[in-house]
Amino acid sequence: MSARGAWPATPALVLLLVFFLFPVVRMLGFSVEAGSFEWYAKALGEGLYLGVFWITFQIALLVTLICLLLGYPLGFLIATTTPGWATLGFIFVLLPLWTSVLVRTYAWMVLLGRNGVFNRWLIDAHLINDPLPLLHNFTGVLIGMVHVLLPYMVLPIYGAVRRLDPAVVAAAEGLGASNWRIFWRIYLPLTLNGIFAGSVLVFVLSLGFFITPALLGGGRVIMIAVLIEQEVRQTLNWPFAAALSAVLLAATLLVYTLAQRFTRSEAA
Amino acid sequence: MAAQTGEDRAGKLGVEGLTRRFGEVLALDGVSLDIAPGELLTILGPSGSGKTTLLKVVAGFEKPDAGRVLVDGRDITAVPPAKRDIGMVFQNYALFPHLSVAGNVAFPLQMRNVASAEIERRVGETLALVELAGYEARLPRQLSGGQQQRVALARAIVFNPRLLLLDEPFGALDRKLRETMQLEVRRLQRRLGLTTIFITHDQEEALVLSDRIAVLNRGALQQVATTTEIYERPANDFVADFVGESNIFHGTLTAPATITLAGGRTLKVNSRGKAGEQRGVLMRPERFGPGGANAFAGKVVEAVYLGASFKLRLACEDGLELIVRQPARGRLPVPGQHIEIGIDPDAIHVF
Description:
The complex is a heterodimer.
Chain A: H1 10-31, H2 38-45, H3 47-80, H4 83-98, H5 101-112, H6 117-124, H7 138-163, H8 166-174, H9 179-190, H10 192-207, H11 211-216, H12 224-233, H13 238-267
Helix pairs in contact in A: 1-13, 2-13, 3-4, 3-7, 3-10, 4-7, 7-10, 8-9, 10-13, 12-13
Chain B: H1 6-9, E1 13-22, E2 25-35, E3 40-44, H2 51-59, E4 66-71, E5 74-75, E6 86-89, H3 101-111, H4 116-129, H5 145-157, E7 163-167, H6 175-192, E8 196-200, H7 203-209, E9 212-217, E10 220-226, H8 227-232, H9 237-242, E11 247-254, E12 258-261, E13 266-268, E14 278-283, E15 294-305, E16 309-316, E17 321-327, E18 338-343, E19 348-350
Parallel strand pairs in B: 3-8, 3-9, 6-7, 7-8
Antiparallel strand pairs in B: 1-2, 1-4, 4-5, 9-10, 11-12, 11-14, 12-13, 14-19, 15-16, 15-18, 16-17
């Protein structure tokens, strides 16, 4: 783009500069306020904090995997079904996306609690005797995050399947391919970009997720964003919070860059 | 399998009473056809005539509401496309964009679990046949339209299909390339002895390629005949008008061997019909010449120079309008010029 063509973007650029770039730089400044990297050393050196990073990474990876396993069939179905069913599918995928994360997370608390809807059903149906531990643990966080992030997986996959020329699939079928082989040899390689885009989106969003792990984790599942919030509001250790944020930012950028590399080599 | 050539595998195709309805539209209206082993039959029709639907039913992508598809006498109407053993070239080629040329051509063999050494050999042979040896590693998007076309063709014939279907395959190519590809497809088809259905809306292409032509309109077969038969002796107005340029009139036979047109003019014709029958009359523009048993005189309304010939629109004194083609000799007639021409009874087709 020429410099002249960029002029209409000026307000947005100024906005980003003031409300995004400046705070980020300011935050990075906090983290090295003491004139040393001691807070980084603490963040990356102490087992407790490394553990939080590790848990965060694990949860993000699991959420991404589960979203992929649930999202691929769903996105595929919506992309290939009749227009009527596709609209219905879209409503089911998008409606949660338009609802506040807070509302949805509280709804999950109602559903998953010890005396929650699910446990009641299961006990009433005599499938279990004691309530299952679904809330304030790893499981609860996973369920809530998958629910919130699923649309970000479904939509890119839907787009990728839609971009595929139906004649190509028909050609494979006519040349003797079974449904199974059509999936492995045609659909999967030709929708890899969608899978990738969705996975990166979900993974990166998971890394910094706050509300859902904070509420559904009940203080027992500490993800990095939850830890940062504690440092800011309870411990009031802003430099340390800034250092943790910087590490999270770096990790996110790293994932993003690697993904970009991969998709580019994929397209070449 | 290795010893089999196309010839002894070429299938005989029969379709019987195929009917397919899409809502209010009757896409196929009781179509019945027989295609001999090794024959190239063109299905010719305007867009929306049902020709693509017919091809899809034969390939198995579309289920007919009624009727059967038979290959060598075996009913395959309920057989899924993957098990029909039919090679098809799609309108936009439908190559696998993520596979190399060799990968595309190898695909149908891999689906048949052919051994990899055998696959390599046959892919090489087939690519040589379509003159694409050396292009094995290219991706489809690195090829020109004509080359993609050849890959699609190679992919459709590499597994010795019982039947080859071509769905308007040359639509996207420029005229020169299209003509080259037409002749090449014809050469390959003859050499391999493949039973082939070719779909087109281009009547010239149909004449170049076919053993026989089946003309389709609004889902119904109009005529199935050899190329000369279709051009010289069309069965009805639609065929006469759709294939080539034509002067079509209607009249009543008045014995012996004359027909009186609606406008009152009487023509000498060769017809075995009985007096009093209502008939159509077809006169091809290039069949007119100086003299002839039927004489026409009129003024030139429009004259176009076409290189090899002049195309003239004549208004005769009795109100009849004629399209006439004359060899391009001398000067192009000018509008208003008086011209006399004629046509022999042999050159007039009565239907």
